[in-house]
Amino acid sequence: MATLELRNVNKSYGSGLADTLKNIELSIDSGEFLILVGPSGCGKSTLMNCIAGLESISGGAILVDGADISGMSPKDRDIAMVFQSYALYPTMNVRDNIAFGLKMRKMAPAAIDEEVARVAKLLQIEHLLQRKPGQLSGGQQQRVAMGRALARRPKIYLFDEPLSNLDAKLRVEMRTEIKLMHQRLKTTTVYVTHDQIEAMTLGDKVAVMKDGIIQQFGTPQQIYNDPANLFVASFIGSPPMNFIPVRLQRRDGQCWAVLSSSLGVAGQARCELPLGELEAGMDNRDLILGIRPEQIQLAADDGAEAPSICAEVEVTEPTGPDTLVFVNLNQTKVCCRLAPDMTPQVGSTLSLRFEPSRVLLFDAQSGERLLAKKRQATDNKVAQLKRG
């Protein structure tokens, strides 16, 4: 196990070209599982290759256990990588594929046999050791590729979108296998994916990337509940967060956001959400209100004072574990995640409740998150406590 730290890492492919990686700063403790997540072309695989030594960095430093490995060759970094394409040797059987790296390190034959047996048992591929890669399914080939990396017992494992070539069912199974494997081995791991579900379920820490920049770095819960900007909020979560355009109004010392919906012949429904006190200059400013589908609840006669609004059902999508209901608020399609036994008819009216404390606000132009003063003060206090 090892700590991994990236200090101001940059990557450029030449003068006049935009940097592929820009001032990457992150660190993970020994044994942690780091997810690099983002859309295609965001730089996550390039960053992975830089950690492995397959590509050189243009600036900054990569440290393992406090030692700078930026100038080392890949073979000297004690890092094992599992590729998206598996990269198995087609003429070798499974046993020889797993043992290949050990033979290159001139391990004793008895030690190689012991290590291959250990890895095969861990990955439940003992019965496949004499087969060639062409005789294996995609999931079996992925296990062999993982086994080859595991046999080396490196300081750090790197996984570059290892499940992207598998079907949906097998991806779920292999995701569980990878998590169980990490729980057993406790080896520091960096995992690249564009799948936000993998990011949420596998990672101890998540770095969300866009255009070569880390947009936010934190635990899955922090990324999900407190996104730093519109991009992070939209990328993490399935179904994605709702984004509703609003214009703030100031009254009685605090700001309010107005929601409205059309009810056909019944006219229009209206709701005001109290948002606390925001910084000066926000009056009558166009902002984006963000709220996740599961945080919009049905209003009930339970005495709750949270604001509610009536809205007409436009589409329902039963998914099994829940029902997605789509309504229109502020001329924007809004998704509500309801219980599976809730199947309202299209055209019917629902009374929806919004909890102001769960509502997020974003600047419509910059996409940056806005915090009420009370919330900002709380966050600052927490940050001070963390710094000691």
What does the model show?
GO terms for molecular function: ABC-type transporter activity; ATP binding; ATP hydrolysis activity. One of its GO terms (biological process) is carbohydrate transport. It holds the Pfam family ABC_tran. With 388 residues, the chain is an alpha+beta fold. The chain folds into two domains: 4-235, 3-Layer(aba) Sandwich (Rossmann fold), CATH 3.40.50; 242-384, OB fold (Dihydrolipoamide Acetyltransferase, E2P), CATH 2.40.50.140. The protein is built from nine helices and 22 strands. The strands form five sheets. It has a six-stranded mixed β-sheet, sandwiched between helices. It has a six-stranded antiparallel β-sheet with strand order 13-12-11-14-21-22. The protein has a four-stranded antiparallel β-sheet with strand order 2-1-4-5, with helices on one face. 33% of the residues are buried. Residues 374-388 have low confidence and may be disordered.
Summarize the entry for a quick read.
26% of the residues lie in helices and 32% in strands.
